[in-house]
Amino acid sequence: MSHHDELEPWRQGIREIDAKILELLAARMELAQKIGLYKQKNHLPVKDFRVEKQIIEKARDQAAQLGLYPSLVEEVMTTIIKYSVLRQDELKRESVTIPAGLGQEALIIGGGGHMGQWFAQFYESMGFAVSIHDPGSVSQDNYPRVGVLDSDLNRFDLLVLATPMKVTGEILNRLIELKPRGLIIEICSLKSPLIAALLAASAEGLKVASIHPMFGPDAETLAGKNIIFCTSVGLLSQDVMQQHFQQTSAQLICMDLQEHD
User: What is the reported pLDDT for 92?
Assistant: First the structure.
């Protein structure tokens, strides 16, 4: 008997299992689509990073029980979640309904950009009613627009600065003048040019946090992604970590603001 003849029954078994895996995957995607239709009907956000974390943690635990590599299972589940979210997002884009928004209000300054859109979706998934300020943007989304940064900012509980570094410093100085009541989060990848403005804003009584998401706007899930939370006297970065990101599957790292760069 040749090696081919001996191996063929096992290979046939693998082919049969692969077919079953694809059938189960199709069934899962069908359920994800039903969930997406429900979310669309009830104006719920597409992404839920808390559910993502629960799915991945459960899969890793089950992998250990089955003798599988947890990293393999995490990678498989992350990919499945990515395409489930993609399908649900397609359903949402087909709808003309503007999300009503839930809970507190968030303003994404620079929300028309790619990273701004990511944070808009993230905070929408957290239950915030999201608006965008980005006069130069022509992005296609259903978020309400805020044309001018003025005293009306006080209606927002959260302001995310998803803007280029030079603009971020200018906006921080503008917010020091306006003194909004909401928590301000800046997300620049370099901190040295912003330290003076951040500390000045904190000294003026503003609630300010500084974080660095170490991923791009194409991140469909947060599994395996790193987020740095810059700490300093007066900054509320650790509060943001605990309240907004602790329930995600991202790796959360605290770092002194002065040491970041």
Answer: 58
* Residue 249: half-sphere exposure toward Cβ, Cα within 13 Å: 24
Q: Exposed e or buried b for every residue in 145-176, given b needs 16+ CB within 10 A?
A: ebeebeeebeebbbbbbbbeeeebbebbeebb
What pLDDT score does 194 carry? 96
State the residue for tokens 């370099």: 190
Alpha-carbon span 14 to 37, nearest angstrom:
35
- Is the CA virtual torsion 88, 89, 93, 96 positive or negative? positive
Phi and psi at 36, nearest 5°, equal: -60, -40
pLDDT in tens, 177-233: 999 999 999 999 999 999 999 999 999 999 999 999 999 998 877 877 899 999 999
Angle at 237 between CA 240 and CA 201, to 5 degrees: 120
